[in-house]
Design goal:
Strand content: 5-15%
Number of helices: 3
Largest sheet: 2 strands, antiparallel
Structural class: alpha+beta
Order of helices and strands: EEEEHHH
Helix content: 10-25%
Distance between the termini: 55 Å
Number of strands: 4
Length: 93
């Protein structure tokens, strides 16, 4: 639907017939860590994320999962393996 609050006249997946479904009923501008991302759109002199209405929350736990401008190490992405479970799997074969 077309946004009726912050991004007036632009397509927004958060707009519902009852109004904006985002936090406090509006989208928030991007933070410094979002600069350079391909998902940032400029509207009326402000920059907003196309994916998240509150971008700051996505950076609180580390790197935003949708960030296109950040290179991730493969070691950071790998899931840690519990050594006890690994030994049980090996013994079962």
């Amino acid at each position: 639907m077309i946004c009726q609050t912050v991004r007036k006249g632009h397509e927004c997946f958060l707009m519902k017939p009852s109004g904006c479904s985002a936090k406090k009923g509006k989208c928030y501008p991007i933070i410094d860590k979002c600069q350079g991302c391909a998902k940032v759109v400029d509207i009326d002199g402000e920059s907003y994320c196309q994916v998240y209405p509150y971008p700051e929350a996505k950076w609180q736990g580390g790197i935003c999962v949708m960030a296109t401008h950040v290179k991730r190490n493969v070691e950071e992405i790998k899931q840690k393996i519990n050594p006890l479970k690994a030994s049980k799997r090996g013994a079962g074969r």
